[in-house]
Design goal:
Blueprint (H helix, E strand, L loop, with lengths): L6 H15 L4 H25 L2 H8 L2 H21 L1 H4 L5 H11 L6 H9 L4 H26 L9 H32 L1 H25 L8 H28 L4 H11 L4 H11 L6 H42 L1
């Protein structure tokens, strides 16, 4: 039976506590953001160097999985946010519910979805394609959903900039890794443990920078304890429902274990990195603190829960490999 709190989950908790007590700000925050971006770039470079071209092409062609993830992200999530309004609104203020509804319309995360899929031994090529497509399409779909379901507001001024950020920070390092595979592929295959530390290290840095910004913006000062408790419960309800529904969808649609893991992690998560810049544009002229607070808390909850799930899936996969290895050696 795997431990509930393994070393990585404990590291996540310590990172959140550290960000609450000693948040980085000013020049230190800028430096830390640069280091974090470099770590994420290294992560995608190593994934590019690790994956064969055949695996990448197979991931791109896995259209059933990509459609499933996109349906969970941009259809199922917003539908739940609307249908659960009678249940959610007694727990939070109207402003916080608006933030919850906005959260439901955002694209999936990219780096953490792929990192957790990798840790859990899921279909990493498909995760890279699916999570990246979600973020690129979200630049256009999220404003349309917000305009349709929340406010009549058309703000897409940051769309191209966000798309270019995704290309520069994620796709270009991955492509560079693919190009470098002919020289580095053998070395990366022999040092697979390095990817584990880069995966986990990049997640810890994202958590620290994101939570530091939330704390500095007054996360703990501006929210009454009752509303904060209600918001935590609302986020837990949404995440629990999506984890259960994505798991059920993966099984009922006949996906294999690796694809089910990919659907679980890519289809149940929301992007803080995309959500905050979009909120500044879509809700220009309004105080966006209450709008982004549900996203900031959901972001931390999803990382903590998915870390536990990824470790459990990883241990299950390792046990399965150990059980098969004696049979292979005797064959």
């Amino acid at each position: 039976m795997p431990k509930l709190l393994d070393s990585f989950t404990l590291a996540l908790i310590c990172t959140v506590v550290l960000a609450s007590l000693l948040p980085c700000s000013g020049e230190a925050a800028q430096i830390f953001n640069i280091v974090t971006n470099l770590a994420i770039g290294l992560l995608f470079f190593l994934h590019g160097a690790k994956l064969s071209r055949e695996a990448v092409l197979a991931g791109m062609g896995h259209w059933r999985l990509h459609l499933t993830v996109l349906a969970c992200t941009f259809a199922l999530f917003p539908l739940l946010g609307l249908l659960l309004k009678p249940v959610l609104t007694p727990l939070v203020t109207p402003e916080l519910y608006l933030g919850v509804l906005y959260l439901c319309m955002l694209p999936s995360t990219v780096q953490s979805s792929i990192a957790f899929t990798s840790m859990a031994q899921g279909n990493v090529p498909a995760a890279i394609c699916s999570a990246t497509a979600s973020n690129l399409l979200g630049i256009f779909i999220t404003p349309l959903l917000v305009g349709w379901l929340v406010v009549s507001h058309g703000g897409m001024a940051q769309g191209m900039g966000s798309a270019l950020d995704i290309v520069y920070q994620l796709l270009l390092p991955f492509i560079a890794g693919q190009i470098a595979r002919r020289w580095l592929g053998h070395w990366v295959d022999k040092h697979k443990a390095l990817l584990k530390y880069v995966d986990q290290g990049s997640i810890l840095m994202v958590v620290y920078t994101a939570f530091s910004a939330a704390v500095i913006s007054g996360l703990w000062r501006q929210t009454p304890p009752a509303a904060l408790g209600g918001l935590l419960l609302v986020n837990a309800i949404l995440l629990g429902l999506l984890l259960g529904l994505t798991t059920l969808a993966g099984r009922k649609l006949g996906f294999n274990r690796e694809d089910q893991i990919t659907i679980l992690f890519c289809g149940s998560k929301k992007s803080l990195a995309s959500g905050v810049p979009m909120a500044k544009v879509l809700f220009a002229g309004h105080a966006i603190g209450a709008i982004v607070l549900p996203l900031m808390l959901f972001h931390q909850i999803q990382l903590m829960v998915c870390a536990v799930l990824a470790q459990r899936f990883r241990q299950q996969a390792l046990r399965g490999q150990q059980e098969k290895s004696p049979l292979i050696s005797r064959g």
